[in-house]
């Protein structure tokens, strides 16, 4: 077990943590793919108030982003998640005839995610730890063997939950009371800043935490040790 007061990460480890966090949450490209379809939808609707044209443009750019990733043979998970989000938004808006509903699935997802972060942290199974454990090759070792790291994941999960819940507290009243274009621009403006704040706080908490336990390296070491024991036993039998 790694005690909470174990040595903190070195600068090189912090750089690795920063890179892993950025990659896990999509990086700059992932942020662009998250914002661009909605930005295009709101921009076109602001100009011509045509729901169908706005929806087609958002769907087209979302699919184009996936095609670009496929052509470049990049990971498509962030782009595909964006496509599904846009598809649900378009479906809601076209069914109701209300352009505001393009944002509604994303808002409901954000609300559910904020509650998941808060509840999981309170239950001792912080969602950020479950998400990032495999990224740092520690899996669930932080729960029982690295209490300082579990504490950091708990703080990060609370931070994500509070930030996303605050975002919802701003957007849901506007959804009911503001006009469509104003609501749309506020929703677009709140896409990236809360996300960056949550990622930054996560990095702060993890940078001060003990380094992760590489369980994969431990398993490899155990396998090599077992092979060495078997080889030694075979040699002894041959010599006997």
From TrEMBL:
Transmembrane intervals: 51-71, 78-95, 115-136, 157-177, 183-206
Entry keywords, A to Z: Membrane, Transmembrane, Transmembrane helix
A Pfam family recorded for this sequence: DUF3159
Top-rank lineage group of the source organism: Bacteria
Keyword RNA-binding: no
UniProt entry tagged with the keyword Magnesium: no
Protein name as it appears in the record: DUF3159 domain-containing protein
Organism annotation: Streptomyces cremeus
